[in-house]
Write a structure and sequence with these properties.
alpha/beta; Rossmann fold; 62% helix
């Protein structure tokens, strides 16, 4: 057997922690997981058939080696002075012996060469499907997930494809073929006892290995759960690096991480102790079987029933047979682990989409600035905590409507519903959202999101260049288009002043940029997208007053002839909106223009007065 496995426990292919948000497997059997994997491999059916043929050829050549070795040893029992026997027969046998050895390696490498495309192709397709499915899942799933645990599920599942194929096609099946050939040869060429001894040893070996490995699973499971827990905590702590620093909690985080590592260490030691027991028991069974076989073969040579070559052949067969069996514990465990990892990834792939397109959904049709309408919209993230209560309003084509109110009033929820990250909670009561008169639940999500551009309150950037992040609004945009958008967002001068210009890396989540710089990058990429519907969710909240006024002018220009929803806390940014909605506890309590709302002397007027007084106090 090739050195693909070792008798030591591997830290690869660990399952995710229990209760992972990726979803628990619904009791799928190992056979069910294999059936789920089979279609991905069967796309390469001719490669599968060719690989199996090469595998059989390799095992036939491997079994032929001891047979030739027997003939070579027997041929060496020549009569003194017989030149032909010494020079011709052994030379031919030696040549054949070398060719068989070469054939074994050649067939094995051909098998791997032919099947590599199938393995990598299946792994690529599965990984791509998981990636696409994750992007298709609802925002609720991504808010609840643990990034560290989920990425490990995907990583282990992808590795599981390689491991499962490697250990089954390259280890288990070839070993079964070789065992069958060897037992048949021993029974036919000598007597049934040789096959019986080998068979009994194999039965005891396999029974012991499977029993102990299954018993060890509980320790492996505990170890894996603790490993995932430690990993998730470490990732969470590093992602919140600044918060850790703000509160001087480096040692607290290290102690929390170390507590997980200590528990993991105890579980790993217990797992290693049981592995040592498994390896010792396996070698004991192998040693007893070998001794019994060699004793019978030696007795046969003494009795004249067998030649010295027969003894050598039996010994060679046993060595060839028991060497791969020595890895059976590792192979069995890794196959079981790979099946578990694959099942977790398949379960993730099968997780139902909370927000899915209808089977007959067509792309939304928009000709010019569309009207946007919220009709009696109610919504709750959790049933016991409603957020919106039958909210209704219109955004006329090409007009701007602003929504203001205190934190938690439900303003940002409007944007999430318009993007269809969630569906309205009361469609049975007539609750719906339409764009250009089309219910967004009845058209494709991709077309709805393509028609909307947003500058979010919390801007998160990719760990790439400034140009990449701006161009993300329109993949394939030219540098001139990116620069034009940057100028409109008033960030071009800042970018040009950096040593690398538009090739400047922004860091993970854009942490190398200030809040205002990130927000201007977000504005630039939305301007570059140039959609018919715009959403500004606190688009200038991180900017200073001078830049805010300048960018507000750019945003007003960008919003011309576009249907725009503005969500704001600072009322000074929405005074020119065609209509302003005041929200409180998920309801619209006032609506009108800036002047009309001030005349009402209600909630808006009080908010305006409060903010004006605050501005004067800081002036």
């Amino acid at each position: 057997m090739r050195s693909r496995a070792s008798t030591a426990d591997s830290s690869l292919h660990l399952p995710a922690a229990a209760g992972s948000p990726t979803g628990a497997a619904a009791g799928r059997s190992d056979l069910g997981t294999l059936k789920r994997l089979f279609p991905y491999l069967w796309e390469y059916k001719w490669r599968v058939v060719a690989a199996l043929s090469f595998m059989v050829g390799a095992k036939l050549a491997n079994v032929g080696v001891p047979l030739l070795l027997k003939n070579l040893v027997d041929t060496m029992s020549f009569k003194p002075g017989d030149v032909q026997a010494v020079l011709v027969v052994p030379a031919a046998l030696l040549l054949a012996y070398g060719l068989l050895r070469l054939s074994t390696t050649l067939f094995t490498e051909l098998r791997e060469l032919v099947f590599a495309k199938a393995t990598e192709g299946a792994a690529r397709r599965i990984s791509l499907e998981v990636f696409r499915h994750l992007h298709a899942l609802s925002l609720r799933f991504h808010l609840e997930r643990q990034t560290g645990g989920m990425t490990r599920d995907i990583e282990r599942g992808t590795r599981g494809v390689h491991s499962l194929i490697s250990y089954s096609l390259y280890s288990i099946i070839p070993t079964l073929i070789e065992v069958t050939l060897v037992l048949t040869l021993l029974a036919v060429k000598f007597d049934v006892w040789f096959a019986a001894i080998t068979g009994i040893a194999l039965v005891f070996y396999i029974f012991f290995t499977v029993t102990v490995t299954n018993w060890r699973t509980q320790f492996r499971k505990t170890m894996n759960e603790l490993d995932s827990s430690a990993h998730s905590r470490a990732i969470d702590s590093l992602l919140n690096y600044e918060t850790v620093k703000y509160f001087n909690n480096e040692e607290f985080e290290a102690q929390r991480y170390d507590e997980n590592l200590k528990r993991y260490r105890k579980a790993a030691i217990k797992s290693q102790n049981t592995l040592s027991l498994l390896n010792t028991g396996q070698q004991l069974i192998i040693a007893i079987g070998l001794m019994a076989m060699l004793w019978r073969a030696t007795q046969g040579v003494v009795d004249g029933r067998m030649t010295l070559g027969d003894l050598v052949m039996v010994n060679a067969f046993m060595i060839q047979l028991y060497i791969p069996l020595g890895f059976l514990g590792v192979i069995y465990r890794e196959i079981k682990q790979s099946l578990t990892d694959l099942d977790k990834m398949f379960t993730l792939m099968e997780r139902e989409r909370e927000i899915a397109d209808e089977p007959s959904a067509q792309p939304i049709c928009i000709d010019g600035p569309p009207a946007v309408r919220f009709e009696h919209v109610s919504f709750a993230y959790e049933p016991a905590r409603p957020i919106l209560h039958r909210v209704s309003f219109d955004i006329p084509p090409g007009k701007t409507v602003a929504v203001v109110g205190s934190s938690g009033a439900g303003k940002s929820t409007l944007a999430r519903l318009l993007f269809r990250f969630y569906d309205v909670s009361n469609p049975h009561e007539g609750g719906r959202i339409t764009i250009a008169g089309q219910d967004i639940r009845h058209v494709t999500q991709a077309s709805v999101r393509q028609a909307i551009g947003i500058v979010p309150q919390d801007t998160v950037l990719f760990n790439d260049t400034v140009e990449y992040n701006i161009a993300y609004g329109k993949p394939g945009a030219s540098h001139a288009e990116v620069e034009e958008a940057a100028r409109a967002a008033r960030i071009h001068d800042f970018i040009a002043s950096t040593p690398l210009g538009y090739k400047t890396m922004v860091g993970e989540r854009g942490l190398k940029l200030s809040g205002g710089e990130k927000q201007r990058v977000a504005i630039a990429r939305t301007l570059l997208k140039n959609p018919p519907v715009m959403i500004f969710d606190e688009a200038t909240s991180a900017l200073d007053s001078a830049n805010e006024r300048a960018i507000q002018a750019e945003l007003r220009t960008a919003a011309q002839n576009k249907t725009t929803l503005v969500i704001a806390h600072r009322l000074s940014t929405v005074v020119e909106a065609h209509e302003i909605l005041v929200m409180d506890n998920g309801r619209i309590v006032e609506r009108g223009t800036h002047a009309q709302l001030l005349e009402m002397e209600g909630a808006y007027a009080r908010m305006w007065a409060l903010q004006q007084n605050s501005s004067e106090a800081y002036a």
